[in-house]
Design goal:
The chain is about 50% helix and about 0% strand. It is mainly alpha-helical. It has a domain of about 80 residues.
Length: about 300
Amino acid sequence: MSVIEWLLNSDPAIRWQVMRDLTREPAEVIAAERARVASEGWGKRLLELEDEDGQWAGGALFPAATDDSPGQPWTATSPTLQLLRAFGIYPDTPQLERGIPLVRENAKWEHDGQRYFDGEVEPCINGRTVADGAYFGEDVSGIVELLLSEQLDDGGWNCEAENGSVRSSFDTTIEVLEGLLEYERATGDARVKVARERAQGYLLDRHLMRRLSTGEVHEKYTSFAFPPRWHYDVLRGLDYLRDAGVTPDERWDEAIALVRAKRDPEGRWPLENTHVGAIHFELEDGDGNPSRWNTLRALRVLEWVKAD
């Protein structure tokens, strides 16, 4: 079985993206496959787990019920919407057209009871929420204004800025970048593009994995996870740059070389560094095993670089 056949022998959430990014199928074929995300497989399962009030697990970032399992639980509304976006579910899916307004009214951030699409105080959470709102058609302009005002001098963002940090973090910056890209696509706001380009420079100046001050590699960023949750890694950074249509740049050559080096003899990439915590259900076979998500993302990054 070829790598493409292996990828297509999977969930609609992966299949439609393979058709769009790798096999270049006609638009109507891609659209039909994408529509299946809501009615088959992982997307359908997530929709079935939605609460009557529109939330998942009764909470915004954390489940309402105490969970004693190791790590951070990933079953509440925010990580679930992040997954649905990654799956590419159509925003006008009837259940979401009913459910997203319920999230707006009923989901409150655990920080201080803020309404979901009003955001809270941490830019990493707010970046993800901007992505949710822009994708699902909610007004998140207030959060965007806050994020634009919080951009640090080095170009990125850091959730520790409120505690005095003046240096950005990869983890926070990638969350904000992904949110601003969704918002820019939805609104065309030119100020957002300016902020994004500054933040992209933050990543590129660090070769997507190094400390600017010492050149030291952040080893934790060299392992590729899916879902990424709130964590940065090199593949996530490259896939964002591809999605944003950034012109290939020699500053990411080292990152591309890392991606190529992780390819196994069958042309697949492994799952690495799964972030511990309670989940709705497994998407892959565990760390060390071939990962369809990582393989899809790595192949489309390499296709994008080759096409330049």
